[in-house]
């Protein structure tokens, strides 16, 4: 049984690892180590079309009439309106899902997140409730210049750059399941985050794998991604 | 009679092509070999199958549907049924759109014998015995005779042969978004796209053919072709270079749906286009003239002949006759002459062309011109394989000819009787067609918001006016989309006269085809009106006109004219038949391709698969039904019974992560739970669980679960796997009214859960659990604790669903697989064994526990299912309270009872009826063989008077056999609940 090499935390898409695979730990999850060579090829793949499981990165939700105030008090910069997201200086992202609900996504970084094991740093008070998004939602990332075209195979919302700019948030149906799509593109690389019911992550992964095939897309490990983009 | 005899060596190979610039579509450097009817041929890449066959001198491509008449290309644009052929794995393929590929092997279809010598052609001789609608009347009398006719008719009906083993290949769908969708890339479409894109709109340009340009790629617009060629080059270059325009060639817009939702088929993909505005520049269909034998191979639309030359570099024939009702026939004649075709005659149904210079131009080429003449009959050789000549007559009146006869030999006839706008999409959108008797043309009006028509579809045919109209439509679209733009006026002046008003000439011997698809002649349409079908829609249904593959593109206009004349009305009164989507044939593979079938998996799913579990669906979830038996087999009953016995004797583990989970937090959490569920919850102690049943406003039990009080203001409640979505929605809906200070979160996927059940359950947990005193005294039945399983934080619930000492462990889902691994590892020496849903159902049945949704239906109220104990009638309110009170005050109509049968009895199945004499009094909801009790046990609805133990109920089982079961007290097993409370 290969179970022993895993830590206790696993993402919905925890890969099948062999006992002699090189592994690393990030936020308490076991991941395949970044492959040391061919960084340029991986960068090219990221630019072209790549799909990766970002579920080992921290995320949580905050909801309630006092949620916005609680985040502001913590020094976060909030989006201007629902269905938009704002990047924080340290690289994390806050998406506003409604007037009183926020989704916090940790920075895509090799630095362990303070949220990884505890949500207490946010110290929610009355009228402010933490939501266990680390467990309710899987987190996939789709990168490359064809992200809008890939999504057009799965989603009835126009996610082209003109209609869905960086920082846009779409709470919609993707391949018939509910999903949150966030345009987290950088100046150099288009990137969509997709957050879906964690129990449906395997399903959506398989659907996306099929969809990216047309664009010469490929799967990429999170550590490979972080080594390049983090 | 003059008959044209082609030279023997004509068109032996594919090398007889016209010189460039003819043949814009073919690559002369890329020859392609293929077979038709077993005979090898050659063509070029870029050819269609039809063009390559014509290049090889073969015009006969198909047989007609009814009379099996030889047919050849009519439009060469995929707009008629004359080129339907059979591919190895696909029937009814249009040869004039099927790209020629290396090694393609194609056959004709719908013939007996061979395509060239079809024995069924003799059906044509019986035509007078098969008038329109004959089959509605002929085969049903005397009564019962249909069953004899049906096999014969079925054998003769249909066209190609479907290969049931064929793999349609990968088809999928995708959305496309645009500000403006332009359908058609002729001169109007190109100009519309450019104007809209220049104005800042994102434009999607949809073109059915392989290249942009529409009629500019094949038609001639004036004696001097240079201006239109330059226009084509300029427009295409600008469109292709424009960043705001996305092009879709080889793409058919197959319908218009509300708010500009357009299905567009390109290759194996169905695009679902969402546009903010739509410009239909779909052009107009060239119309045939109707005369005797107008369907012979070699008789084609003038535009088809021009396509042959300009697209494929093929001479349509050696000696042509052009029949026209407009100036375009003159231009086509000039094209033919320039490409070396002898034009034996230009037959103009009018007195003179609109453009008098055209008459001079054709006469300057030595073409004999016959004015106010028509073709009255086309001639053929014995086998009908090709037109060999025509008989001309002077036109004496509407549809009438004089006696003077002129015979002319030819091997090709080009017709241009007028145009019918490609109005299909516009009519689907609600556009209304009106007919102008003066111009004999249709116009369309009443289009919905942001839908526009441009170009020849809008009645303009002069090139400059067509282009202007495209720009005009685009400026209107831009304005309506909020762009700052000056809207252009419509092209000035009257519409050009392009339609000859009555290009139909009945012949005493008939065979003047109005509808080529259905072999309908002039008399067929008129006869339909004589049967009393005055409405053109009824004529369509009675005669089947317009119901074939070409969907009335060439038959709608003449049918409307014939019906109008026969019923002494105008075409404006009769209208034309309705155009419904799809515009062109679409395959089921396009509709079915790449469907999405979501599923959900628990965090432990991989372990179940590794263990070889037989998985079953539970809503969207995939759950293990059972695991392999000790013998390694996957026999349901054996596995179920082994697993159940193991739980009763040792310890088992079941993945219950699919259970719904809802967190209710806030100062009013207890009040909220108390209103939602039937029991009392205000005083539920922290650290205790409580059964929670939910009724709707009609008092019907709709869900149940366990309420866990984690803190004064924090509840975690479970719900059924399939019901949690509805429960959550219902909670949100109620609190929208109540405005209680709570937060309600569906956390189903946030927790992975297992139930560890069996006499050894505590012993197992003691090995892995920390932070909790697991003793019976410290952690009693229905207790709730928070602790750790290994590293995983967990809620521990003392539950008894399966009737054994049991602990339900809920951990954050990221620890789900770890939880499973930890327990399985720790339980090895205790012989811990996983059990599936099937065993769980048996175990709970032995305990008489109800499954909501299986043992209840849309009428089950709590007292009917013996759950009165779960209703707190002292509290003032819960959802459904009033209805429950009313239902309880009425005499009961039925009751859910436990029944027992000997193990040797026939076993009832779920759904089998419970009978009270002849009357149905209920049905079985659950039934299993219990190895623990060695008896068949079950739950069933029965008459209330049968509800007490000692009564008997009659159940009708499979095959109608009835069994009489004993009604027994519940639970069946461990009535004092000693085992679960250990």
TrEMBL record, chain A:
It comes from Halomonas dongshanensis. This is Sarcosine oxidase. The lineage of its organism: Bacteria, Pseudomonadati, Pseudomonadota, Gammaproteobacteria, Oceanospirillales. It comes from the Bacteria.
TrEMBL record, chain B:
Keywords: Aminotransferase, Oxidoreductase, Transferase. It comes from the Bacteria. Residues 604-875 form the GCVT N-terminal domain. It comes from Halomonas dongshanensis. InterPro entries: 2Fe-2S-bd_N, BFD-like_2Fe2S-bd_dom_sf, FAD/NAD-bd_sf, FAD/NAD-binding_dom, GcvT/YgfZ/DmdA, GcvT/YgfZ_C, GcvT_C, GCVT_N. Belongs to the GcvT family. Residues 509-593 form the SoxA A3 domain. Residues 179-432 form the FAD/NAD(P)-binding domain. Residues 894-974 form the Aminomethyltransferase C-terminal domain. This is 2Fe-2S iron-sulfur cluster-binding protein.
């Amino acid at each position: 049984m290969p179970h022993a090499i895993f830590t206790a935390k696993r993402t919905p898409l925890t890969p099948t690892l062999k006992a002699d695979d090189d592994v690393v730990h990030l936020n308490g999850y076991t991941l395949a180590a970044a492959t040391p060579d061919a960084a340029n090829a991986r960068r090219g793949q990221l630019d072209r079309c790549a799909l990766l499981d970002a579920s080992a990165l921290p995320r949580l939700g905050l909801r309630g009439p006092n949620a916005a105030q609680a985040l502001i008090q913590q020094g976060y910069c909030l989006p201007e309106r629902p269905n938009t997201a704002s990047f924080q200086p340290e690289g994390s992202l806050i998406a506003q899902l409604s007037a009183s609900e926020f989704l916090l996504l940790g920075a895509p970084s090799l630095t362990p997140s303070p949220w990884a094991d505890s949500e207490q740093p946010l110290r929610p008070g009355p009228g402010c409730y933490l939501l266990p998004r680390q467990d309710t939602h899987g987190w996939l990332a789709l990168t490359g210049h064809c992200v809008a075209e890939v999504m057009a195979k799965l989603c009835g919302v126009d996610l082209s750059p003109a209609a869905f700019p960086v920082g846009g948030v779409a709470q919609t149906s993707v391949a018939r399941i509910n999903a949150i799509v966030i345009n987290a593109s950088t100046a150099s690389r288009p990137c969509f985050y997709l957050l879906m019911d964690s129990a449906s992550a395997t399903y959506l992964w398989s659907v996306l794998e099929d969809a990216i095939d047309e664009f010469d897309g490929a799967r990429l490990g999170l550590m490979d991604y972080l080594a390049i983009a983090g | 009679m003059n008959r044209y005899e082609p030279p023997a060596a004509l068109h032996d190979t594919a090398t007889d092509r016209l010189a460039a610039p003819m043949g814009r579509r073919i690559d002369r450097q890329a020859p392609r070999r293929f077979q038709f009817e077993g005979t090898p041929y050659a063509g070029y890449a870029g050819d269609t199958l039809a063009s390559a066959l014509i290049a090889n001198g073969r015009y006969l491509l198909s047989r007609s549907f009814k009379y099996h008449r030889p047919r050849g290309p009519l439009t060469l644009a995929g707009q008629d049924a004359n080129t339907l052929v059979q591919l190895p794995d696909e029937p009814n393929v249009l040869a004039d759109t099927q790209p020629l590929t290396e090694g393609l092997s194609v056959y004709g279809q719908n013939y007996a014998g061979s395509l060239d010598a079809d024995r069924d052609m003799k059906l044509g001789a019986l035509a007078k015995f098969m008038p329109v609608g004959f089959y509605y009347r002929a085969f049903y009398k005397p009564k019962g005779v249909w069953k004899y006719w049906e096999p014969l008719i079925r054998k003769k009906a249909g066209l190609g042969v479907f290969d049931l083993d064929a793999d349609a290949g990968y088809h999928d769908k995708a959305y496309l978004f645009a500000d403006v969708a332009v359908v058609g890339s002729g001169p109007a479409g190109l100009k519309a796209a450019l104007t809209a894109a220049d104005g800042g709109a994102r434009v999607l340009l949809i073109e059915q053919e392989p290249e942009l340009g529409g009629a500019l790629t094949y038609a001639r617009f004036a004696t001097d072709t240079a201006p239109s060629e330059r226009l084509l080059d300029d427009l295409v270059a600008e469109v292709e270079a424009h960043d705001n325009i996305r092009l879709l060639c080889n793409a058919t817009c197959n319908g218009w749906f509300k708010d500009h939702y357009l299905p567009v088929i390109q290759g194996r993909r169905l695009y679902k286009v969402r546009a903010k505005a739509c410009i239909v520049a779909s052009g107009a269909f060239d119309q045939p003239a109707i005369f005797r034998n107008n369907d012979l191979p070699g008789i084609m639309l003038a535009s088809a002949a021009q396509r042959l030359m300009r697209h494929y570099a093929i001479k349509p024939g050696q000696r042509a006759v052009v029949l026209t009702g407009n100036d375009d026939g003159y231009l086509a004649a000039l094209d033919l002459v320039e490409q070396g075709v002898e034009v034996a005659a230009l037959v103009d149904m009018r007195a003179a062309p609109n453009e008098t210079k055209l008459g001079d131009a054709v006469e300057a080429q030595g073409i004999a011109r016959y004015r106010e003449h028509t073709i009255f009959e086309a001639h053929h050789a014995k086998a009908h394989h090709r037109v060999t000549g025509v008989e001309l007559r002077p036109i004496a009146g509407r549809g009438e000819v004089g006696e003077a006869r002129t015979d002319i030999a030819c091997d090709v006839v080009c017709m241009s009787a007028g145009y019918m706008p490609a109005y299909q999409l516009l009519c689907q959108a609600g556009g209304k067609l009106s007919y102008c008797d003066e111009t004999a043309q249709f116009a369309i009006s009443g289009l919905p918001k942001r839908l526009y028509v441009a170009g020849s579809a809008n009645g303009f045919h002069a090139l400059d006016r067509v282009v202007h109209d495209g720009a005009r439509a685009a400026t209107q679209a831009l304005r309506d989309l909020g762009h700052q733009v000056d809207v252009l006026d419509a092209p000035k002046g009257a519409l050009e006269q392009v339609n000859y008003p009555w290009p139909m000439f009945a012949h005493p011997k008939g065979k003047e085809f109005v509808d080529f698809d259905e072999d309908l002649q002039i008399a067929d349409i008129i006869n339909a009106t004589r049967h009393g079908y005055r409405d053109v829609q009824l004529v369509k249904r009675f005669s089947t006109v317009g119901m074939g593959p070409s969907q009335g593109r060439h038959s709608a206009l003449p049918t409307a004219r014939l019906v109008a004349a026969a019923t002494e009305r105008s075409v404006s009164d009769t209208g034309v038949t309705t155009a419904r989507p799809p515009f062109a044939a679409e395959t089921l593979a396009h509709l079915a391709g790449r469907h999405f079938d979501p599923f959900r998996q628990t965090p432990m799913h991989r372990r179940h698969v590794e263990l070889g579990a037989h998985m079953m669906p539970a809503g969207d979830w995939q759950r293990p039904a059972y695991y392999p038996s000790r013998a390694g087999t996957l026999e349901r009953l054996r596995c179920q019974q082994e697993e159940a016995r193991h739980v009763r004797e040792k310890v088992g583990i079941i993945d219950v992560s699919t259970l719904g989970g809802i967190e209710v937090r806030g100062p009013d959490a207890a009040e909220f739970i108390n209103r939602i569920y039937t029991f009392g919850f205000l005083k539920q102690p922290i650290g205790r669980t409580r059964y929670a049943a939910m009724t709707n406003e009609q008092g019907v039990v709709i869900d149940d679960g366990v309420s866990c009080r984690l803190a004064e203001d924090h509840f975690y409640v479970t719900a059924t796997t399939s019901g949690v979505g509805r429960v959550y929605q219902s909670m949100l809906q109620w609190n929208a009214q109540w405005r209680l200070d709570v937060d309600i979160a569906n956390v189903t996927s946030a927790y992975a859960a297992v139930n560890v059940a069996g006499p050894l359950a505590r012993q197992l947990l003691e090995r892995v659990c920390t932070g909790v005193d697991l003793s019976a005294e410290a952690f009693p039945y229905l207790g709730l604790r928070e602790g750790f399983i290994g590293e995983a934080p967990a809620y521990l619930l003392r539950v008894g669903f399966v009737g054994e000492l049991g602990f339900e462990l809920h951990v954050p889902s990221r620890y789900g697989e770890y939880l499973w691994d930890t327990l399985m590892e720790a339980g090895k020496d205790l012989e811990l064994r996983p059990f599936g849903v099937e065993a769980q159902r048996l175990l709970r049945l032995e305990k008489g526990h109800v499954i909501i949704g299986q043992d209840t239906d849309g009428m089950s109220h709590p007292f009917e299912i013996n759950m009165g104990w779960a209703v707190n009638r002292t509290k003032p309110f819960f959802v459904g309270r009033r209805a429950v009170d009313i239902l309880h005050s009425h005499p009961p109509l039925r009751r859910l009872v436990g029944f027992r049968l000997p193990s040797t009895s026939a076993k009832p199945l779920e759904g089998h009826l419970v009978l009270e004499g002849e009357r149905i009094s209920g049905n079985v909801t659950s039934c299993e063989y219990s190895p623990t009790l060695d008896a068949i046990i079950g739950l069933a609805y029965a008459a209330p008077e049968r509800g007490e133990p000692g009564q008997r109920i009659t159940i009708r089982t499979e095959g109608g056999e009835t069994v009489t079961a004993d009604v027994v007290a519940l639970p069946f097993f461990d009535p004092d609940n000693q085992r679960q409370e250990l």
